Amino acid sequence: MNPKKFKSTKRFTGFPCTHRQWRAESHCRFVHGYSREFHFEFAASELTKEGWVVDFGGLKELKQWLDQVFDHTFLIAQDDPELEAFKALDQRGAIQLRVLPNPGMEGTAEYVYLEATKILESLYGKRAWITKVEVRENDKNSAIFEA
C-alpha cells in the first residue's frame, strides 16, 4: 500500500544575475544574464497542524539564501579558466562573484536543490522534503532537477 503524499509548490521570481558557460562553442561562452526564477515542489506524508505541506511564510531563510546567491550576482564555474580574473573584479567591487560547480540552468537546479534541502531539513526534519526544483532563465528555457 502506498503511503499518502501531499504536494505543494512555491515560486520565487526576480533574480537578475549573469553567468557564462566557458565550455560552450557558442555565444553562451560570453557573459550574459537573465532574471532567473525558481519553482519548488514540496512533499510530505503528513501535514502541519495548520494543514500545510510547508509554511510558505516560514521560507524566509530560503528566500534570503536565493537573494544572496542570485540577486545581482555573477555566477561562474569553479573550473572556469578565467576565475582569477573574475575574482579580481569581485575584489575591486565591480561584480558580486558566486562560484558554483556549474552555473548553467541544469547545474543551478541541482545546486539549488541540494542547498534548499538543507534549509528545509533544518525547518521540518524529515517530515517534508523537496521533490523537484525548476530553474527558469526566461519564458522559453528552464531546467529541472528531481529527487
Protein described:
The protein has 3 helices and 6 strands. It is α/β, with parallel strands linked by helices and 147 residues long. It has a single domain (6-146), classed as 6-pyruvoyl tetrahydropterin synthase/QueD (Tetrahydropterin Synthase, Chain A, 2-Layer Sandwich), CATH 3.30.479.10. It has a 6-stranded mixed β-sheet with strand order 4-3-1-2-5-6, sandwiched between helices. The two termini are 21 Å apart.
Q: Choose one word for the global shape.
A: elongated
Instruction: Briefly note the CATH topology name.
Output: Tetrahydropterin Synthase, Chain A
Record the strand order, biggest sheet: 4-3-1-2-5-6
CATH class equals Alpha Beta
Number of domains: 1
- As a percent range, the share of helical residues equals 25-40%
Structural class: alpha/beta
Helix count?
A: 3
The span between the termini is: 21 Å
**Ranges with pLDDT <50 over ≥5 residues?**
none
Strand count, sense and barrel status of the largest sheet are: 6 strands, mixed
